[in-house]
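Why does residue order matter? Because the sequence determines the fold. Keep that principle in mind as you read this record.
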Amino acid sequence: MENKVSWTFKFLKFPKPVKSPRMAKYPILRHKKAGKRKKCSKLPKTPTLAKRKKYLWELCRAYTKLRDGKWCVSCKKRLASQCGHFLPKSACNIIYKYDEKNIGQQCSYCNLHLKGNYIEYRNHLIEVYGLTVVEEMERVYNLPLPFDFSPRVWVEKKIKWYTKKLKKIANFKSI
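Structure:
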């Protein structure tokens, strides 16, 4: 029996074997996916880490907007519409990516065109937190995390922390 192979040169796909006559005898095996699927258990699915990080980022943005008000922390001239990072988000480990000290309200000009307006942002952080805290952030922001660090557990703890802070600020602002 010859094994016939069809070739497609359009996108250099792998060769597709021609269906064997043996499979024609077993229509159940051939059309197995056509039937109904079994229902899975009704336990709720745990959200993926990416979805939890996205939710954490939304909480960070909301907290920062309530904490900093509506003015840019770098230039203090324009209305802020974005959350900017003091230490670049791409270079930070997960801890400093969502750290409240690293995130602040910035206008689009400072955040995008001036690449975060680093010098003015640093001066603002020194006024608020002090020089030792800023130097410590600059020293350890991209160090590797410990081997037993669990990002999922850390993200869940940070979500609880930010929700507690948001409730406290929202109650304080409404008084």
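The radius of gyration is 27 Å.
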